[in-house]
Structure formats: C-alpha cells, structure tokens
Amino acid sequence: MSVLVSICIPAYNAGKYIAETLRSLCGQTYKNIEIIVSDNASTDNTGDIVKKFAENDKKIKYFRNEANVGYVKNIRAAVEKASSETIAIYHADDIYEPEIVEEEIKVLLNNPKMGGVFVKLREFQDSSRIVKRENPFYHFFNKLAFFDKKHECLMGGLDQFLPSLMKHGNFFACPSFMTTKPVFFEAGGFTDKYPSNEDLEFWLKILNKGYSLAIINKTLLNYRRTEGQGSAFWNSSPELPEFYHVMDDFLADVKIPLPESSFIDYRKNKSDGYLTAAYNAFVLNNKPLYYKYIKMSKEVYCFPFYSKKGIYQIMPAVVFRMKKVSFIIRNLLLKLQYKKDTGFGKNI
Predict the structure, then answer these.
(1) According to CATH, what is the number of the domain 5-226?
(2) Percent of the chain at pLDDT above 70?
(3) N or C of the chain: less Cβ packing under 10 Å?
(4) Cα separation of 172 and 157, whole Å?
C-alpha cells in the first residue's frame, strides 16, 4: 500500500489563483494524498473556492484561522493538521505538474537520511504567462560531483550544498518542498528571523542536523510571479538581499572546514548582491544608497576591470542606464517570443 502524502498549503487571499493550484494537485499521478488548506483569515473568496472543491473531492480539507497568525505560523498550523508523517509544503498560487508528488516520494522514501526533496521550477509572469529564463544554476548542476545519476537528482549534505549556496545563492525551489514531520520539527521549522528568506534558514538547519537534501532533475513546478508577492518586493529592494544576512550568520557559526575558494566565491556573490541593491537604488533615484552600495561592492570584492561586473563597478551610472533600456526591450521581445502557448499547465 502506498504511503499517504499530506500536501500542506498555507493560504491568504489566494482566491484569484487557488482554483488553478487545486486542479493541478487533484490531478496528480500519485493518488494517495490529502490536501490541507490552512486559510490565514483571508478577506477574499479563498474559503468559498476551497470549500466548493472539497464538496467534490474528499481529499481536500479546509481549515481557517480565526485571526491572521502570519505566514510562518500558518505553515506550522497546516503541518500539525496533516494526517501523515510524510508532508509536502506547496503554495496556493503555483501550478504543479501531475508527476511532482510521485517523483518526490520515490526519492524521499528510498534514502533514510533524506531531509527534503525539491524539483526544478520555471517562473512565469502572472499577467502575461511569459516564461522567464531558467535559473542559471540548473544549466550545469547535473555535472556537479554530488549529482546522483541513479536517481537523476542533485543529492548531498551540508559539505556538498554549502559551497554551491555560497557561489550561486538559494537555488532550492521552496514551493516544491517534501519532507517528513519528524525532520520538520527536529530542525525547528520555518521562523520569522529572516523576512523573505525563511526557507533558506530552514534548509541550512536541516543540513546542519546531518540530513541530506535532493533536487530532482525535472521541471515539475510552475512558479507564478506577481507584482505584489514578497519576492517581487525583495528583488526590487534598494537593500542588500536578505540571503546574505542568513549566510553571514550561518558561516559565522558553521563548524565544517571550507576551502578558501568557497569564501572567494561568496565574496564575489555578495559583491554582486551590492551591485543589485545599487541598481535598485539607482532606479528609485536614491543617490546616497546608490553610492554607498557601489563602494561596498568594491570593498567586498573588486572584479577585474575588463569583466562585466568590473565595468559595473567602474562606471555604474552608464551601465545602469543601459540596463534599464535593455530590460524594457527584453520584456517586449519575450512577449513576442511567448505569444503562443508555452506548454505548461495544459492539463489544468
């Protein structure tokens, strides 16, 4: 008999999207599932939509918080209501391919020390359905030394993943996370310590407990980008991304030996993060922050003058103006390129 998987969905004012999400989950090839929607006191029609789905499909269970308890506590509320020890934490506005649960449960159950399983994602813009470019990390991750060819996934512990995180940033697709209740609670779950990067902190805690993580080499999550979501805010924020605060704190305490090359990679990454913050400050015409972050970028790591990032550091105002124009042109080209159906979610 197959293991029951409890799919936990924290939701708040998700009425515009949750029907599409539920249809994608009800159509999973893995049938032994329950879908738990924890409604965080929504003020829209989220509850009505979920209840209507639940009338026709007994796998769906709806719960509502009397008051909004915040994102992190709402995740915990959903997990605590799960009937199974095997849980997946998915989002209320994304679209899931039919095989995601089946693929993830195979990897999770076949590896005793597996702390969590993820898949690759494709981003799409909600307003236009334009598919954005893949995370560059995906282009070569199957060539890394800890890629497991037998299970067709990147699989490893802290020793393997930490250097890659230092070099490339957070590449785990949060809304595709499958784990078990014991791992979730042993690692302490998500916390509010790092706004917008609750997930990265949690992945590091799982790895630090001695568990492995895995990313399946299949694109089974369609991640919706909307203007109002938290990640959209942080991507355009004139502040150093929260990712670096999480990593700085973790690296200050981590006990495993790391090669000097990993720290150089991290300094390059962080210098690039300051350039991103400087560009956002430039767009917002916040000159003090713009100058401050250009200076800090150079202090963290000075790129060679002939490199792309080096040119950013040497003449940022010129490059940033060009970047603004190229951003507009690229979006226009993308709209033309993806005018036809891109292929995802055809079964929704």
Answers:
(1) 3.90.550.10
(2) 88
(3) N
(4) 14
Entry pTM: 0.89
What Rg value do the Cα atoms of the chain yield, rounded?
A: 21
Q: Say if residues 278 and 316 touch (Cβ distance below 8 Å).
A: yes
pLDDT in tens, 287-330: 999 999 999 999 999 999 989 899 999 998 888 888 767 766 66
Instruction: Say how far apart CA 130 and CA 122 lie, in whole Å.
Output: 10
**Three-state SS across the chain?**
CCCCEEEEEEECCCCCCHHHHHHHHHCCCCCCEEEEEEECCCCCCHHHHHHHHHHHCCCEEEEECCCCCCHHHHHHHHHHCCCCCEEEECCCCCEECCCHHHHHHHHHHCCCCEEEEEEEEEEEECCCCCECCCCHHHHCHHHCCCEECCCCEEEECHHHHHHHHHHHCCCCCHHHEEEEHHHHHHCCCCCCCCCCCHHHHHHHHHHHCCCEEEEEEEEEEEEEECCCCHHHHHHCCCCCCHHHHHHHHHHHHCCCCCCHHHHHHHHHHHHHHHHHHHHHHHHCCCHHHHHHHHHHHHHHCCCCCCCHHHHHHHCHHHHHHHHHHHHHHHHHHHHHHCCCCCCCCCCC
Alpha-carbon gap, residue 103 to 5, rounded angstroms: 12
Structure tokens at 59: 């796998």
Phi, psi dihedrals of residue 265, rounded to the nearest 5°: -60, -40
Model confidence pLDDT, tens digit, residues 96-109: 999 999 999 999 99
d(CA 156, CA 211): 8
| Burial (Cβ within 10 Å: 0-12, 13-18, ≥19) of residue 308 | exposed
Phi first, then psi, for residue 61 (nearest 5°) are -125, 130
Q: CA 63 to CA 75: how far, in whole Å?
A: 12
Token pair for residue 216? 């399946």
- The segment(s) of the chain belonging to CATH 3.90.550.10 are 5-226
Amino acid occupying residue 30: Y
Cα distances (Å, whole numbers) of residue 12 to 63, 124, 184: 12, 20, 22
Please report the pLDDT score of residue 320 as a whole number.
Answer: 82
